Amino acid sequence: MNFPIFSSAKNRLLSGNWQPSKKDRGFTLVEMLAYIAILVILVTVIIIFAFWPIRAGSKIKTNYELADNARRALDTMIYEIKKSKSVYTPTSIFDVNPGQLGLEQVASSTTETLTFVDFFKCGNSLCLKREGASPVALTNNRVKITSLTFSQLLNSTATPSVQISLRVESSATSTNPEYAGVLELTSTATLRTY
Questions:
Q1: What is the distance between the alpha carbons of residues 190 and 160, in angstroms, rounded to a whole number?
Q2: CA distances (Å), 187 to each of 17, 48, 54, 182, in order?
Q3: Half-sphere exposure of 28 (CA within 13 A, CB side)
């Protein structure tokens, strides 16, 4: 079997002229290094652009988790404050971190006229405790409450208001900035007058 591709190289080799022609030679070392360098640059650029959306998505998820937990906790506290008759001062701790807020509310049952609700920090969570019930965490374990302060504000009317200062942080133990986040919220709610 005769292959025309190898015939010219075979003839030169047999005639003593063993130098391959330009078309028979492979890549030079410089050409090979240039191809490898271009390939490394292309792969690096592709990897960087492939991981950027993943990191951005992680940061968005962390920020959403913080905002959702803080909003839900703050909305619950404001709702309970607005439907309360008065601030229950024996269980309330104002102007310190961590604070506690006790509220006196009109009971919905026919056997009792008043009931009590408390907000406080339990572990890394914000908890709500109703009279006669176990505490319920208002935040999940992916965030931690690092500051909780209540202040009683007395205004010109006889109705007191409560200012809530809340600091929520991501509970992720990673040092990567896309998994870390902090959110500080302050809000004020006025008690309902009866």
A1: 6
A2: 92, 41, 34, 17
A3: 5
pLDDT value at 12 more than 80: no
Residue 78 burial class via C-beta count within 10 angstroms: exposed 0-12, middle 13-18, buried 19 and up: middle
Instruction: Sheet containing 143-153: give its strands across.
Output: 143-153, 161-170, 182-190
Question: Which tokens is 112 given?
Answer: 């009792």
Spatial contact of 101 and 162, defined as CB atoms under 8 Å apart: yes
Total residues found in the chain within this entry: 194
How many Å apart are CA 17 and CA 35, to the nearest integer?
31
Q: For residue 126, count CB atoms less than 10 angstroms from its CB and return exposed for 0-12, middle for 13-18, buried for 19 or more.
A: buried
pTM of the shown model = 0.69
Determine the Cα angle at 69 with ends 72 and 181, to 5°.
145
Give the mean pLDDT of 95-113: 85
- The gap from C-alpha 91 to its chain's centroid, in whole angstroms, comes to 32
What b/e readout covers 144-168, taking b as 16+ CB neighbours within 10 angstroms? Answer: bbbebbbbeeeeeeeeebbebbbbb
Mean pLDDT calculated for residue range 133-161: 87
